[in-house]
Amino acid sequence: MATADGPIEPEEAVSAIRSGDTVMVGGFGLVGAPLTLIDALVESSDADELTIVSNNIGEPGRGLGKLLRQGRIKRGISSYFTSNPEAVAAVNADEIQATLVPQGTFAEAIRAAGAGIAGFLTPVGAGTVLAEGKEEHVVDGVPHVLERPIHADVALVYAARGDELGNLWYRRTARNFNPLMATAARVTIAEVGEIVSAGEIDPESVHTPHLYVDELVLSR
Amino acid sequence: MTADVKTSIAARAARELRPGEVVNLGIGIPNLIPGLLGGATNVFLHTENGLLGVGPRPGESELDPDLIDAAKQPVTALPGAAYFDSAQSFAMIRGGHIHVAVLGALQVSIAGDIANWAVPGKDVLGIGGAMDLAVGARRVIVTMTATSSTGEPKVVPECTYPLTALAAADVVVTELSVLRLREGALVLTELLGDATVDQVRAATGAPFEIDLEDRRAA
Q: How far is A43 from chain B (nearest CA, A)?
């Protein structure tokens, strides 16, 4: 549940992030990305050596692309670094480490982390370079890869609407990885487009129940 | 590759789709298919970033920053559409609930192995949903030109590029032909345009059987 004191300032929220932390950041490209929280992390935090778990590492100079330019990302775990050519260049220059994960495995590994699942077997990636170093198991004659959950210290998510307790409602394709990431970190900070009173989001339409959300921040 | 060639490949691939099917379209040639369906909404388009029921590109006044497809391009949602998170979207894919994936490819082997995401020696830093779709969709249609820009056949005995998935392709549509994977064999089932068997043979790096009985009028 979000704090009873209501939303906090983004700068205060990102002070929960320490050097060396693993930070999940929602969004598919910039759609559904918590841009206010990312800006606060860029401008008011000096945490570095970060491991970023996000489908993309922003775009050049936008979203997580700003944090990349500051040299504060040690490692990226993503399905598609290619949307930010600067991230690709940083990987090729050995400035950041890259772990490439098939997008469905990426989503499921985050879901698993939030759901207390220690691993799962998927046929996706079996027989490819992305299975290298992973246990392979043949199940019913089909090769599978053992995938482990992806946990984080802090998750930064975005929802169009949140209520004062921290219940979240996402809009259209801005939902993407946000509800999964909200479950998978020690601390979840939700940036919301608007805050409404408890009860104003129809209980049938709550996408992320408030127990997953530790802090609320309003988009700027 | 001219736009005409791409369009002709996409048009032939579109004819593989059956009414009521749920279809995921990859980037490139597959993305031309919606424009070739003639506005008919007899298939349901799924995009892995979380929408079933993708509609046409929006006009300026309909642009919605929260509504994109997997190519990160603006789209609309048709009546009856549904939004969902990425885990559910890939459960649909991995769980066999998507009838057809149409993918581009760099190479396809006679075993149906697909390589479509990386060229050796180049950056291998973007896979997206390609592996999940190739493995999980019930039918996988590959759309590609028969040969690379340097004239190398893309249908090969064995893929030399990094693999996307093993034994995944069911149909390969190029500008010359339709090739089907049937019981471990590659079968030429249709010649497109003015193509001849000899031309297909010259542009294909692997042996194939010929069964043109399902050739249709163009």
A: 25
Window 119-138 of B, Cβ < 8 Å to A = 123-132, 135-136
- pTM for this structure? 0.96
DSSP A68-110: HHTT-EEEEEESBGGG-HHHHHHHHTTSSEEEE--HHHHHHHH
**Coil, strand, or helix at residue A205?**
helix
Q: Do A175 and B165 touch (CB under 8 A)?
A: no
Asked if A130 has any chain B CB less than 8 Å from its own CB, the reply is yes
- Name the CATH topology of B3-214: Glutaconate Coenzyme A-transferase (3.40.1080)
| Chain A residues in contact with B140 (beta carbon < 8 A) | none
Residue A164 in any domain: the answer is yes
Of B111, B108, B90, the C-alpha closest to B152 is B108
Alpha helices per DSSP H over chain B: 3-14, 33-36, 86-94, 130-136, 197-203
ipTM value > 0.90: yes
**CB-based contacts of A64, cutoff 8 Å, min separation 6:** A25, A33, A38, A52, A54, A56, A57, A58, A73, A84
The two structure tokens encoding residue B73: 């391009």
Average the pLDDT over each of A117-121, B31-35, B100-104, B160-164 and give the range with the smallest value.
Answer: B31-35
Q: Which CATH number goes with the domain that contains A157?
A: 3.40.1080.10
Q: What is the pLDDT of residues A24-80, one digit of tens each?
A: 999 999 999 999 999 999 999 999 999 999 999 999 999 999 999 999 999 999 999
What pLDDT score was predicted for residue B38? 66
The pLDDT tens digits for B124-140 are: 799 999 999 999 999 99
Burial of B198: CB neighbours in 10 Å, binned 0-12, 13-18, 19+ = exposed
